[in-house]
Amino acid sequence: MKKTILRIAMPLLLVLFFSCKEDSKIKEKETTIKSSASENYNISILIDLSDRISLKKNPNSTMEIYQRDLGYIKSVSEAFTQHLKSKRMRQINDKMQLFFNPEPENPEINSISKELRITVDKDNASRDLLNSINTTYSSKTSKIYESAIKDDKYIGSDIWNFFDSKVQDQCIDKDFRNILIILTDGYMFYEGTQIKEGNLSSYLTPQLIKQNGLNTNDWQKKFEKENFGFTKIDNDLSNLEVLVLGINPSKNNPFEEKVIKAYWTKWLSEMNIKHFEIKNADLPSNMDKIIKDFILKKE
Questions:
Q1: Between the chain's N and C termini, which has fewer beta carbons within 10 Å?
Q2: What is the spatial distance between Cα 9 and Cα 26, in angstroms, rounded to a whole number?
Q3: How far apart (Å, rounded) are the C-alpha atoms in residues 44 and 55?
């Protein structure tokens, strides 16, 4: 009798066991999707408006540097709106903003940049707003570059000072995924911020790389042994992710690209930034997937 009951009950128990297991998998999957979709993004874009974008000094017959920048910004904006559209309206609480350091003297540029500080939350989220973000960013950033090139007054790039005094307050918010996109050729120089401590400096130029003797085959050995790099900043930026786009080394030194990336890698690592990527200048069509994968966490 007992054996008969067991023979009848066993298949039912197996069905219930596997059914519960499948339910558990489905719930786990749903939780993962909801968690990913409800993540709040805080995206900042830092533009290097130095003479790297000058049509006179750095002409490019394939595609001008400023046009590449605009293409990268378009990809960032599209990734941001794609993220927003993956969420329910009541879950939306995301931000995107644009910075320069130092701020350009042209008041028009500063005015436009303020218009590009976008906050989307459950109170103002609408399909119309979401659909307008890409157009707004595209048209207004074009005006910024056109105005800067027309002015032809390039005061340099103070990225070091931006990290030292502004990143913590302006680019990092609690309970957000904080992402900083930097558009730069990899060099840094600003007249007002020139700090040098031994072989560490707050600036990096082709002349400095040559002067430091980092233009030979054993550059890496020298870099590590003599402690070259950017001046260290004592900030813990472990809750910030950084994507550097547009590295454009001088053609006079075959090791220049590796040296620039070594400076940046060491510096970002010292600030405890765990997720960062440093990419060379390339056509926007080639960079689109890289940018969107970084922002949307696609491995």
A1: C
A2: 26
A3: 26
Residue 185 within any structural domain of the chain = yes
Domain span holding position 73: 41-296
Q: What is the pLDDT of residue 35?
A: 41
The candidate with the shortest Cα–Cα distance to 256, out of 202, 207, 203, 189, is 207
8 A C-beta contact, residue 177 and residue 40: yes
* CATH number of the domain where residue 213 is located: 3.40.50
In a domain, 21, yes or no: no
In 3D, which of 189, 229, 231 has the Cα closest to residue 206?
189
The two most distant CA atoms of the chain are separated, in Å, by 96
Count of domains for the chain:
1
How much is the pLDDT for 106?
87
Q: In this structure, which amino acid lies at residue 266?
A: K
Is residue 222 included in any domain, yes or no?
yes
Q: Closest by alpha carbon to 188, among 275, 247, 258?
A: 247
